[in-house]
Each structure stands twice: as structure tokens, then as C-alpha cells.
Amino acid sequence: MAVKNRFAELHDDITAWRRDLHENPEILFETHRTSGIVAEKLRAFGCDEVVEGIGRTGVVGVIKGKETGSGKVIGLRADMDALPINEQTGLEYASKTPDAMHACGHDGHTAMLLGAAQYLAETRNFDGTVVVIFQPAEEGGGGGREMCEDGMMDRWGIQEVYGMHNWPGMPTGSFGIRPGSFFAATDQFDITFEGRGGHAAKPHETIDTTVMAAQAVLALQTIAARNADPVEQIVVSVTAFETSSKAFNVIPQRVQMKGTVRTMSADVRSLAEKRINEICNGIAATFGGKADVTYHRGYPVMVNHEEQTEFAADVARSISGDCSEAPWSWAARILPLCSKNAPVLIFWWATAIPQRCITPNTTSTMKLSRRVAAGGRGSSSNGCQRHNSLTHELNAPPSGGAFSIGAQPRSQSAL
User: Fold this and answer.
1) Are 77 and 65 within 8 A, CB to CB?
2) What is the CA radius of gyration of the chain?
3) For 293-314, what is each residue's pLDDT tens digit?
4) Per DSSP, what are the bridge partners of residue 163?
5) Best CA proximity match to 291, nearest among 186, 226, 207
6) N or C: which end of the chain has fewer CB atoms below 10 A?
């Protein structure tokens, strides 16, 4: 049974799964319906073990090969959660849930890994064990962390974890990967400025928090421009600014700001945290007010391990012919939280729909292509079989690792 022929047969089913998930998006850990569907299908596929409730609403399925003498245990991971966005695609299968949309393609990731799980459970043409990991709360909720803290890595002895993420703007059928630091560490900050409110016509009687906060927005940009080494990578963005008064003639008592910091090294990350505190407290003191700064450390830097990266890129090129070195990404991925236990790897796969204007992830008009989704589901099966010393169908080398790519049907309509 050739990989490409079997996936051609599964294509319509997997498309239907994805569209159902797209119509019924769920946020963060509230993936109860999605998790239930995933677990039901994994059991129907004949997985050797299916466990729900890992990391609250995460699901894990175990598939043993025809042989397990290699001792290899490979994890393949997909995320399940949606974003709090109102969908505006106009698709017939658009979200039916207000303020929730699969705008980052996680419905496609879930459907593809389900397709790969079905193929692997049917064929089992590998020596080792595959653990399919369906993670909730990737979008800032730390779902991967909770799954790891629930003992997922140790419980199944997972030695390596592989994942991928759709990426608009790349040519259809292409892949991108890079060794070393790939996805940035992602932190958040909350800043509250306290002053003395009053009438806007009498600013001399107030301690103006709006002026304080406005100064801080600009001053925080000097962390990248004047504090960090120019060769280092850092982004500091203030993304929310709210005053305690909504009146046009009142200087507010309080201003609250929120934002994010993206870095590629531990030293620069610590520098950003230190300087945000110093800048905001210094500005507040200058104006006679007070600042309260809370810095939340989120996902660490996503680091692709060299050996696994090289092998994955090799597999990708051998099948699609196009796997280029990707640039650094300032988005965040949860896989590094597993890296204390095992090597991890993530790479991009293209989501362009040539007939349409390409829209970025996390927007209300984001769409996936059926064609590239086919490549994704083939990736998990083909790569793990090569990794686990498959000799029956692929005649592949006995070592390495990849969550790579498979054959792609010709259809380019939206998945």
C-alpha cells in the first residue's frame, strides 16, 4: 500500500474532519468536543492505547509497529485550540461559534495528524512506537507544559518529539526549517501607572498618568534600539493601553498597559525584563506617580536539534524537492517545554492558495489549502516510518527523524 495512494483514499474523510473542526472551534483548554472527537477516532483506528485528560483536555494515542525491537518511541504533535476571533471568510463551513475561529490552522494540524494516525495504525510498517499527541491551549495557555507536567514524556518513554506548523506566504508544496533557535521566547507584561486624577482643564492639580504611560510606550522601544546588542534579536511591543476614565475632560487616575517581548536568547530576555521595570518605575518617579510592573515569562526559545533537523530536511527534499532554510520566527511554539526530556523539532509547511490573496495566520480571513494539508498528513507517517527503520515500503535509513511530507493531490481548493 503506497503512502500516496492510501492518502488519496483518505483525503475526503480528512477534509470533512477538518471542516467539522473549523465549524466548531474551541478556545484554550475548552477543547472538550474536539478532544472527544480525536479520542473517538483514535480508538476507531485501533490505536493500542488512547488516554484523555493529559494536560486537562489533551489526548494521547499509542501505535506500536509490527516490531518494537528498536526501542524507538517517537512523538508526533498537533495543536487543537482556536483563537478568540470572529471569522470573516464567508466559507460555507465557517465558525458557528461567536468570538472563536481556527485562524491559525490548528484544525488542519489536528485533521492531518488524525489521518497519519489512521494510516500508521492500519499499516504498522515500522519498528518502534509512535505516540500521537493532541495538545490544547497552544495559543498562550501552556497546554504543552501541562501535558509534560502530567508526566506524558516519562509515561510513554518518548525520546523525540516532532511537529510542524502551517505558514502562509511560502510556495505551495514547500517547507522551511532551520537548526538551532527557530521560534522566539515569548513573554508578556502588565504595567499599571498610578497618579492623581482630575479635571483636564486643571492639569497642574493632577499627576497625569496618560503622559506617564505615553512616555513609557516610546521609552520601551529603546530596549531594542539602545540597550540590546545590535546583533541580538528582540521585539518589544505595547499592545494595549487603557485609561481608568472614559470621559473627554478627565485626566485619569490610572492607566494600564499590556504587551509582549520576543527574544532569541536567555541573556536578552533577562535584559528586557530588567529594563522594563527600570524604565517604567523611573518614568513614574519623574512625574511623581507610581508604576506596578508584572512580567510573565512564557514559552522559552524553540531550538531545533541539529541531527533531527538535518534528517527532516533531507526527507522533505527527497519528496517535495523544496525545503529551504527558514528565517527566525517571532511567534512562539510550545514544543521547547518538552526539550528537557527529549530532542524536539518543528518546521513550516506552505499554506498558500494560489488563486486567492494570501492572508496571514491569526486573522479573521485566514484559509488553508486542501493540497498542502495532504502533504502534512503524509508527513507524519512517512517521517516516523523512516525514523523507525521502515523497510517494507520506503527502503529508508534506520536512523534520524522527521515529521516530513507526503504526496499531494492536485486539488488546490480550500480544505
Assistant:
1) no
2) 24
3) 999 998 888 888 888 888 888 8
4) 77, 346
5) 207
6) N
- Residue 96's contacts (CB-CB under 8 Å, 6 or more residues apart) are 23, 24
Contacts of 276 (CB under 8 A, 6+ apart): 189, 191, 220, 223, 236, 261, 293, 295
Residue burial 18-44, b: 16+ Cβ < 10 Å; e: rest: bbebbbbbbbbbbbeebbebbbebbee
- Cα separation, 202 vs 179, in Å, equals 58
Of the ranges 50-64, 149-163, 174-188, 342-356, which one carries the lowest mean pLDDT score? 342-356
6, three cell numbers:
492510501
Q: What is the pTM of this model?
A: 0.78
Which three cell numbers, joined as nine digits, stand for 1? 500500500
- Least Cα distance to 25 among 13, 37, 33 occurs for 33
**Closest residue by Cα to residue 194 from 290, 118, 275:** 290
Q: Maximum distance among all alpha carbons in the chain?
A: 82
